[in-house]
Design brief:
This protein is α/β, with parallel strands linked by helices and 253 residues long. It has 9 helices and 9 strands. Strands 1-3-2-4-5-8-9 form a 7-stranded mixed β-sheet, sandwiched between helices. Strands 6-7 form a two-stranded antiparallel sheet. α1 links the parallel β2 and β3.
């Protein structure tokens, strides 16, 4: 069954020059989460594409039918689209989008110039027991509610095409990919910028230290915000986040 895409949650393309930036959102999130950042990057003259991952921005039942293979295919398509317009490409991922874009860069060596990670997970809260009960829970439940919706409110999530519930079948794919991701950061040789929240209630902040230590790249930087429950893009200091990301992308030219 084909599900309609939420009006705010589809791909967002801004034509600019021959340097491109590929952005993508987190697990069960929305492409709209990155629209403001995309517009800021576009003011620098760059071509920007925010990519909607398969199963997102439609219906939780759609997400339940998609997983690692489809998410990878979404980003392969996005990379190909940008390559038609650009000579060099940087990638920036919000939350789980950072895991997927790091994977993309490793699967397409030499085609990505740098990676931006925004609260990208390695460790999540309660993960060990969730892995333990998930097989049994999947037999009796389709989904679970997002506990962190309370920080912004149900209406805000729905208005931007984000989900307020997580299909358990897709959540298993998310957890499976975290295992893959834990082995991939040690292979990244290109420049990386990392921006995390010290008060993250979704991703354990020591995910940042794990990734930073694993990265063999000689060009890596880690920055923190201190007032967001998860993504730095929700920080009151997001203008500084935008500046850091803009400076990083400019350094890749």
């Amino acid at each position: 069954m084909a599900y309609p895409i939420h009006p705010k949650a589809g791909d967002y393309f801004l034509q600019g020059g021959r340097f491109g930036v590929l952005l993508t959102h987190g697990f069960s999130g929305s492409a709209y989460d990155l629209r403001e950042l995309a517009e800021e990057l576009h003011t620098q003259g760059w071509t920007v594409l925010v990519k909607r991952l398969a199963g997102h921005g439609t219906d939780p039942r759609d997400l339940a039918q998609n997983g690692i293979a489809e998410w990878r295919a979404s980003l392969d398509e996005a990379l190909h689209t940008l390559q038609e317009h650009c000579d060099k490409i940087a990638v920036i991922g919000n939350s789980f989008g950072g895991n997927l874009l790091t994977d993309l860069a490793l699967r397409h060596p030499g085609q990505v110039s740098g990676i931006g990670l925004l609260s990208t997970p390695i460790f999540t809260y309660g993960e060990w027991w969730k892995r333990l009960v998930l097989p049994m829970l999947m037999r009796i439940k389709f989904s679970v509610k997002k506990a962190w919706v309370r920080y912004e409110g149900k209406a805000d999530y729905l208005a931007r095409g984000s989900y307020i519930e997580i299909p358990l079948r897709a959540y298993k794919q998310f957890l499976d990919f975290l295992k893959i991701s834990r082995t991939e950061f040690s292979q990244v040789q290109i420049p990386v910028i990392m921006i995390y929240s010290s008060r993250d209630s979704v991703v354990k902040p020591h995910s940042a230290e794990f990734i930073y230590a694993a990265l063999p790249s000689k060009q890596k930087r880690l920055y923190w915000v201190h007032d967001s429950y998860h993504s730095p893009l929700r920080s009151n200091d997001k203008s500084e986040v935008f500046r850091l990301l803009t400076d990083f992308v400019r350094s890749l030219h």
